[in-house]
Amino acid sequence: MVFSLAYHFLQDRALAEDVTQEVFLQLFREQETLATDQHVRYWLRKVASHRCIDAARRRKIRPRLALDEIREPAARESFHDPMLNETLRKLVATLPEAPRMIMVLRYQEDMDPTEIADAVGIPVATVKSHLHRSLTMLREKMQRLKKEIAR
Amino acid sequence: MNLDNDADLESALRQALSRIEPGRDFSAISYARPRVVYWPPSRMMLAIAAGLVVLLLLPIGMLQYQARQRRGEKAREQLMMALKITERKLQKTRQMVARELNRRNNL
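Structure tokens for the assembled complex are given below, as produced in the milestone run.
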């Protein structure tokens, strides 16, 4: 969960591994304060989110991919289309930090906006608005890609 | 798949962002690295703490030693003075005894 969250957010395996290790190291130090499995899961998601955002800020680069750099998805997309998956992952990676983390928590961890708001530390309304705007942006970019393919 | 539809886009996102596992070696490295990462700072902290304690105790010890030495010297001076006074008093007493004996012998 932690590695996956970090990897989807940072799009960098080595950095994601470092973040994962930092998170589990912190868990090791604070394990006595965490009573239940649920609490551990909640804690892991929260700490991982914050660590990922910190790591992204330290790295100071946000992937700003041009549409040309993203491989075109297959004309007929299937549900498990790896090309489509990669395209979506790269498009998600172009989002700013907060909306990107929100998307990862929503679609990887299947967390609802209230849980995400709690984990990231922002209001629920902001989470919902980020989700809505991110989905709209992704849809628009996918449509533009489709049009480029059709030409 | 038509991604214009919200549900389809969300399904595709769930698929794209599904959980992935770290590399095979990662667990082994993770189990090994915390010891390396965790203990050196701890040892270093202990060394720094020990150094600080020594730095704090050293001047205190020196001051205590100097104070004790000063007290010792003062006590020695006082003792020497007391011995001198006693010596003088003994000399006077001896002289008085000698004078008294001479006077008796002359009689």
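Chain B has a mean pLDDT of 83. The CA atoms of residues 66 and 72 of chain B lie 10 Å apart. Further analysis is deferred to the final report.
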